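Risk register update: the risk of archive-format incompatibility is retired. Evidence:
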Amino acid sequence: MADTGVAIPPATKKDKSRTMSDAAAANADRIVDPETYANPHALDAAFKRLRDEDPVAWCEPDDFRPFWAVTKHADIMEVSKQNKLFTNGEREMLSYEKAEERVYAQTGGPHLLKTLVQLDDPIHYKLRHLTQDWFMPHKVKTREDAIRRIAKEYVDRMEDMGGECDFQKDIALYYPLRIIMQILGVPESDEPMMLKLTQEIFGAQDPDLMRDTKLAEEGDTEKGLDSINQTLAEFFMYFTSITKDRRETPKDDVSTVIANGMIDGEQIGELEAMSYYIIVAAAGHDTTSASTGGGVLAMLNNPAQLKKMMDDPKAMSRTAVDEAIRWTTPVKHFMRTAQEDYELRGRKILKGESLLLCYPSGNRDEEVFDNPFDFRVDRSPNKIISFGYGGHMCLGMHLARLEMQAIYEELFSRVKSIELAGDPTYIRANFVGGPKSIPVRYKF
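Archived output:
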């Protein structure tokens, strides 16, 4: 299949004709710093000031190329629905400038992978539709019984642990992993390896999760990129074997769909196939585990909301799931690049400039959410922007909601009491993250 990915040189350096506002100058470095995302209160404060004073803010943080920080819900929606005007292909996420330069030198383009989040139409549309049916409500519904069995299995496991566990590390991490691995057709015995590789990708900025824990020094982007390359190489080796198997012996799983996928009459390219496996395997569970744990943690910090959930878990679970996803917002941002000049909230975005879509900020927008800093299991309506919008809306959102609903119903219909047994911690990551540890004490 022809290479249709965009490969352009990085945009110009800092623009001397632009100056940062006071709000941007105070927060530009904070909203790119992985450490800020490990402190939700600090993150909320940074985004609130930007929303209040400079909602479309020109930012020039140290070690990053400049961008516009888009922090209001309506503006994020406005950009997201115009996929031809604001594209993914040039710059889809925050990355250190030196790391970007190395990726260009290594690949001749801006990306190591060609996943759905890095591609634009028409290739994005064609690749997305290869597997889309697997993640639509009618197909997800057929898996509900299996998902609820797995939810029961993990709550049973929690009960067997004797009244104390780390909910994030012991339950929330593994439960959605089991489900997405079954959909991919990956053996249960390979799940620990898949979890490790996923954490090395999304936790590459966290000293506890990165592949080489010696690389904890901030900004060591070149060696950090080497570690990511090693992790991707392991993913590639594993899924190359899966591809060979599924082409020889097709099965009823998503791996078979990817391995035998055809685009414009030609078999899907190797890089596109490997990228597809990785985005389904990694994003297909990591974001759900973050929101699952994030919702439980929010309830533990809000006893009145926990009581509401425990009093009627079946009735509360639907709204509680979206509130957990809003509250946690596991995907912190995506970036877009303007293909033409555009005015957004009175600011002139020039062709070629990047926009950072700040999803945690959009999910705390006071103009959209009543008392946005309160966690409410019965919040309705709840116009969450965690799944994105437009052509790049999350492919797995229906599956994620059902997974979370199943385990919330199972857990809160059985547990008699549950409370924190220590201080929770959060992943140090500015792209995808959530709770890292939630120690709990409980009785069944």
